[in-house]
Every structure is written in structure tokens, then in C-alpha cells.
Amino acid sequence: MLRKIGFGLLWLGFLSYAFIFAPPDHPDTWELIQKLSLGQWQDINPLVIALFNLMGIWPVIYSAVLLNDGTGQKIPAWPFAAASFAVGAFAVLPYLALRSPNPEFSGKKTLLLKFLDSPVTGVILTIVVVILFAYGFQGEGENFIHQWQSSRFIHVMSLDFCLLCLLFPTLLGDDMARRGVKNRGFFWLIALIPLLGPLIYLSVRPSLPELNT
After folding, report:
1. CB neighbours of 167 closer than 8 A, spacing ≥ 6?
2. Which of 12, 138, 189, 212 is the most exposed place for a label (fewest CB within 10 A)?
3. pLDDT of residue 109
4. How far is Cα 51 from Cα 162, in angstroms, rounded to an integer?
């Protein structure tokens, strides 16, 4: 119960910070989002472009653990996984507050679960992330810091990225248990490496056992 309350308070705190205490919105925020979404990246700092696209990778990573976790929950996981593509941790935190420990999987894997469970998916995501890292390193750090200090969109997106890094281990233990992986050293290796740790995990984890109910 304390765990659920903690996630609920963290969600409320993040919401409050994002809309009350974060830097103000820029008039051109929606124009920037549109350009980032459409690939119109001229004159945009590569660090911002890389971060924006990495925020599209995180929901896939979370979906790869949320959707099989949700098969044993009283609440469906897919609405939260789908919403995370738009609002990131703002959607993941309510699920973490509502879910219960679930170290087992029962039932059949859907086509989507099979796709997300495949190590090929993890490898593809890892390659994409490495490319984004290489591209982002071409950006201007001082310019990014200035935008982080003055733009609510960049500021909150950066914090969202960090929060998603920190929250992943809360789902990792149960996902490992569902696959029969009991190596605590492996858990901490994945948990302590931001983003690349979860990607390594998705690339090497054993396949989810499929049982009939």
C-alpha cells in the first residue's frame, strides 16, 4: 500500500511541478513540436531532436514489460502503455500506483506481445538509440541548457526522460520472475544503466513462457 501511495504522490508532484513550477511555455512550442514530429529539423538543436525521438523509444520499452504485466492485473495495462507515447511518465506512474506485484504470466501471447517479446525488437531499438546518441552529440550543449532553463517543453521532457530511467527497475523484477531469471547481479546491472540497460535486457531476456489458462 505504501508503494502505491508513493507512486501516486510522485505522479501528483510531477504534475504540479510541470504545470506550476517549470519554466513558462514558449509561444512557438507547438510549432516546435510539429516540426519535430514531421522531421522538419532545420535550425533545431540535434540534442533536442535526439531527446524528442528517444522519448518515442521509451514507450516501446515500457510496453514490452507493461503489456505482459497487465495480463495478471485487475486493470488493463494497454491504455497506460498507449498514453505513454504521448505523455511518458505521466501515464506510467498511475499504472505503477494501481498495479499489484505480478511475478507470473498465464495465457497466450498475442501478436503484439510476441513482437515485443522478441529479442529482435530489443536489438532494433538499441541500434536506433545508438544512432540517436551519435546524432545528438553533434548538438550544442550551452544552447540546450538555455532551452532547458527557459522552455517548459524542453524542461519537462528532460525530466520525463530521467524519470522513465528511474522507474523502469520497478517493473524489472517481476518481468524477470515471469521468465525464471533470478540473477540479482543481472537485475542491478540493467537497473543501474539508464536506457541502455533496459535495451540490453530486452535484447537478451528469455522468451516469456506461454501457458494455457
Report:
1. 89, 92, 93, 96
2. 212
3. 87
4. 11
